[in-house]
Amino acid sequence: MSPIYYDLSEQFLSSGIKFRYYGIARTVMEVGYELACSSADVRFVIFSPAHDRFFEVTPRIGAQSPTGACDPNISHEAKPLRLRYSFPQPHPVRDALYPFFRTIVKRICLKKWNRAVPPGSLREVDLSGQILVSIGRPKMMGDYLVAMDRQNIRPRFFPLVHDMIPLHEFAHPRQSMFARNFAHDNGIVIRHAEKVMTNSVFTKSEIEKFSASGHLPALPPVVPVLLPHELRETNEAVEIDTPETPYLLGVGVMTGRKNLECILQAMLHLHDTGRPVPNFVLAGAHRKRTDTYLERPELAPIKDKVQVILDPNQASLRMLYKNALALVIPSHMEGFGLPLGEALWLGTPGLAADVPALREVGGDLAEYFDPTDPTALAALIDKMHSDPAAHTALKKKIQSKHASLRTWKDVAAEVIATVSAPSTGA
């Protein structure tokens, strides 16, 4: 088989500490690690907006990588400024000014690159006819696909799509700029794809639904490649202390779609009905709207039960999972739901919203509740907190099924299999 070029642009174009342990960036680095360790002929590339070209990189993996998994091994100082390459609709003023701003941004990016990347240290790659696998965000894929179109470069493109959430009105109004850009970027990705991979069966059904409704183009074959439960152990130092009393854990839970409101209202219900209220540790990136919500007067009776831990590294996150009474993931919708899988991997009970993607992740190992009903979640919390026998039984059940849980190696193997299989049928 031809070599596989695996795209690490997600890590290069959004490089930094803040989000490297979470979501799409995590998926890119973890699959990259397993591909680097596999026997397949895999090479690694990044897209440079300074050159509108791809360059081959030699990633650091495992203990050599600051992420503990995989990174493109290029200086953070080379991180470029980003300017969209295309737009869903014409705009006379923007379109007239765009070439000028594009020229300025490219000059800045080239200066940053030349200062940070030794001359001749990275090889430019022509991906015409080559297999290109990307697991990053559609907006980044869309930009480099447009750039390659302008140069008549046509790779065999195999993207993985993570969700269609912005196309739902409760997340972003259908006519909002974000939703229009999201649909536009995904349209570019789909039109260029030989096959589309999705992170869950639910996301496959979503992309098919939005294609059928005309919000997205006609589809090539769509193949679910489910993400894993595994949370890799790294050699990082644990940087936090966990509470000594039992606590619930939320990872990346915010207001809105992620439904932090449900957890806090469930805790408030326990307080108001005289039931014991466990502590709640909220781990993830800083969100101003979360801070604002926690200051609401009606939450005063439970506010001292909430502890926020910002940007824990992977070792700290593992410890938070392992010591938690239970993980709570109350989202109205997810494309997959990595935190639920990670909790189960480490033997920790998961209390999950009863939505399709989380059912895929949790199977019969999680406890489910209606995300619109905080009292249903309160009952599950009370059960985990006040019924040691039930809590122990659930932990034993999870541990007994550990061998059936998916790993990042499984994901990488399925990516290779999808790319290798003939692209026939839908």
Automatic annotation (TrEMBL):
UniProt-recorded name of the protein: Glycosyltransferase
> In which organism is this protein found?
Sulfitobacter faviae
Q: Which InterPro entries match?
A: Glyco_trans_1
Lipoprotein as a keyword? Answer: no
Q: What is its EC number?
A: 2.4.-.-
The chain positions of domain Glycosyl transferase family read 243-398
GO function terms (MF aspect) = glycosyltransferase activity
Q: Which Pfam families match?
A: Glycos_transf_1
| Top-level taxon of origin | Bacteria
Keywords of the record, alphabetical order, are: Glycosyltransferase, Plasmid, Transferase
Enzyme class, broadest EC rank: transferase
